[in-house]
Each structure stands twice: as C-alpha cells, then as structure tokens.
Write a structure and sequence with these properties.
Blueprint (H helix, E strand, L loop, with lengths): L1 H9 L20 H10 L4 H18 L6 E7 L14 E9 L5 H67 L5 H33 L13 H4 L12 H24 L5 E9 L4 E9 L9 H66 L5 H36 L3 H12 L1
Antiparallel strand pairs: 1-2, 2-3, 3-4
C-alpha cells in the first residue's frame, strides 16, 4: 500500500512523495520573504552608508571658495649706508584673494553631485546582486527538497521490494542471495535518503545564512514544480543602465571641470604700507594673473571628453549585450519548462506503469528482482532528470530576474526604509 501510494503521488508532480517526508518544522518561507530578510540583514549596508556620507561631505567641500591669504613684507629692513638704520624700514600688511572664474565652483559641485549619484547607483546594483545570490540559494534549497522526495520514494519502493523478495525466499521461489541483494539495495536507499536529507538541511542553512538565521523553516515545492516559461524578453534592469548613465554624467561633469581649469584665476590684493622714515601710511593694491604660455589644460580636457565618449559607447553596447543575454535565458527557460512538462506527462507515467507491470510479473514469477530494480531505477532517473531540469530553470530565472531588475523595487524600498 505504501508503494502504490508513492506511485500515485508521483503522478501529481510536486506532491508525489509528500506523505513519506514530513516537511521541516517551522513556517513556510517564500522567495519574497527570503529576499526581504536578506536585504534587511545585508552586512554591506554600513559601508555603503559611509560611502554616501563621504559623497555628501565631498559635495559640501566642492562648494567652498578658496581661502584668502594674509601677507607681511618688510623692506629696507637692514643694509649698508643709509639703510642700516631700522627707522627707514617699510612694512606692508596685505590681504589677497583668488577669484575663481570659468564656473570652477559650479563645475566642482556638479562633479561631486555626480559622484554621489554613481555611489547610489552602485549600491543599488550591489543590492540586486545580493538578491540574485539569495534567489540562487533558494532555488538550490528547493531542488534539495525535491531530491529528498525522490530519495524517500526510492526507499519506500526498496522496502516494498525487499518484503516481496523475502516472501518469495521463504516460499523457496527465489534463492537466498536474492534476499541479500534486496536487503543491500534497501540499505543503500536508506543511505541515499539520509544523504539527501542532510543536503536539504545544508541547503536551507546556506540560505538562512544570508540573514543569520537557522534552517528551521519549510519550503513550498509547488513553486519549484509549477514553473511558467517567461512570455518574452524584458527590458534591461534600470539599475545597471542607471549606473552607466550616472558614470556618464560624472564624466560629463569632469569635462566641465577640466574646461573651467583652462580659465585663469586672477589674484587681487590690498594692504597698508608703513614707512618708518616719517611714520607715514599708504594704501597698496595689486593683482596678478597666470599666463597660459605652456599649460592650457588641453590634454586633460581631451582625456575627459574621451572618457565621456567611452561611457556613451558602453551604454549602447551594454544594452545590446544584455538584451542578447536576456533572449538567450528566455529561450533556455522555455526549453527547460517544455522538457519538464514532457517528463511529467509522458516519461514518468510510462516509467510508473513499467514498474507496476514488472512488479506484477515479479509477483507471478515471470520476472526476476533485477528487472524490478532496473524499472525502479529508470523511474528514479526520470524523476531526478526532471528535478535537474527544474533546478536549471530556477537558476536561469534568477539570472533573468537580475538582468531585468525584477526585484529592483524591493531593493529600492529597503534603501528608502534605511534612509528613513
């Protein structure tokens, strides 16, 4: 009865062995819950907060004007002849200020603002990478649970076959070694089941380590077996293009900075001069302007323009490459979904029927135990193949979700919550 129950449950896809393996204690953890927990416990949050604070400080510093300078000059302080007397010393106290021209301050602030935007975009991309890793770990945990179901089903079938062989041996219908072989097969199936159970626990533990939790939760295998192929290619994630666009804006701001540096900044000064011979005081004013005889910053301007052009080309190329990768993933996912469905609807039912037929013939003495074991192995291989195909489907789903930014809203909402 246990064997037939396992066969009937196998026809239901995800639920083919739920009666044999009790789910892990604890609430069912959905993919969305796992993503939220991992995003909230991201250990890199403090580092990104510090980077954003550094960007804000850089913006404040960029808006600061050049400091003035205070100068003191002593002339005729000492010498020969009539200049040996300190009373003829002339002292000048001056105040001078450099006047920025060419929009230097505004250009610096634009560059600092663009740099802060690049940091924010990188943080969002980094968060999407984290969510992809969590999704991959979730898919691995689901696959491990499905493999545990297969191992449980094989153990149930091995126990049932061992009982049948034992009855045949007692009835002198099979030799003694047939019973020993069936017992060894059951022992190996038990080992495989225990290994699969440990692998499932380890996979849940690896998933829970993203938020520092434990494996005390269950997974809904309906989400693993009930796959739906994507309808078509989606757009590239805005976060990735946003990062490239932010870097392009920073490069454009760098061009403005370099062009502003090509404009000379005059320095004006004013002061008081004290004449020791007569104790008179006079007002002194002056100015200086750097001459662009050799360095006109042309090379730096051309470098900044080339960097901006390179980023513009990178944006175009990235769109094409990512669209190509998305199309490839969509095609592979569609093929995997089709193969999984055909395995479920065509191969597995036939394998189950073959097991039933061989076991019926075995009961009537028409087959040997090796035929039963071979049929059971073929059924287990078909189930394992379906699990492997579905695991690959979910891994490619994680890659596709990363490229299309499916969970970008989740990443952004967590960032906004952290800011608040």
């Amino acid at each position: 009865m246990a064997f037939l129950a396992g066969l009937l449950l196998a026809l239901a896809g995800a639920r083919f062995a739920s009666a044999q393996t009790p789910p892990p204690a604890g609430p069912i953890l959905s993919l969305a819950d796992a993503l939220v927990r991992a995003a909230a416990a991201d250990p890199a949050t403090a580092g990104w907060d510090a980077r954003l604070a550094a960007g804000e400080a850089n913006l404040r510093q960029a808006g600061v004007k050049p400091n003035p300078s205070l100068g003191l000059e002593l002339e005729n302080f000492g010498g020969t002849g009539g200049y040996a007397i300190l009373d003829r010393t002339e002292a000048t106290l001056s105040y001078q200020q450099t006047l920025e021209r060419g929009g230097k301050r505004e250009a610096r602030m634009d560059l600092a603002r663009a740099g802060a935007g690049v940091t924010r975009a990188r943080r969002e991309v980094r968060r999407l990478d984290l969510l992809r890793d969590v999704q991959v770990a979730y898919a691995d945990a689901l696959a491990a649970e499905a493999e545990l179901l297969i191992a449980d089903a094989r153990l149930v079938a091995a126990h049932s076959a061992q009982g049948d062989v034992a009855r045949r041996v007692r009835a002198a219908r099979d030799p003694l070694f047939a019973g020993s072989r069936a017992e060894a097969t059951t022992a190996q199936a038990a080992i495989d089941r225990d290994q699969a159970r440990a692998a499932a626990t380890n996979a849940r533990s690896a998933l829970a380590r993203f938020w520092g939790g434990g494996p005390g939760f269950a997974l809904d295998l309906e989400t693993f077996f009930g796959v739906v192929p994507p309808a078509g290619a989606a757009d590239v994630a805005r976060a990735d293009l946003g990062l490239l666009e932010a870097e392009r804006e920073a490069a454009a701001a760098g061009v403005r900075v370099e062009r502003s540096r090509a404009v000379t900044d005059p320095t004006v000064r004013a002061g008081l001069r004290y004449f020791g011979d007569g104790d008179d005081v006079a007002l002194v004013v002056g100015a200086s302007v750097p001459l662009r005889l050799h360095d006109n910053n042309r090379g730096a301007i051309e470098r900044a323009i080339s960097e901006r052009s390179a980023l513009e080309a990178d944006i175009v190329a990235e769109r094409i490459l990512r669209a190509r990768e998305i199309a490839r993933l969509v095609a592979r996912m569609a093929a995997a979904a089709a193969e999984s469905e055909r395995l479920r609807a065509e191969v597995i039912p036939i394998a189950i029927r073959a097991v039933e037929q061989v076991r019926d013939g075995f009961e009537r003495g028409g087959f040997q135990y090796a035929n039963v074991a071979e049929a059971e192995r073929a059924l287990a291989d078909a189930r394992a193949r379906r699990v492997a195909v579905l695991r690959q489907f979910h891994l490619e789903q994680a890659a596709l979700d990363r490229l299309t930014g499916r969970h970008a809203a989740l990443a952004s909402s967590n960032l906004n919550a952290e800011r608040r």
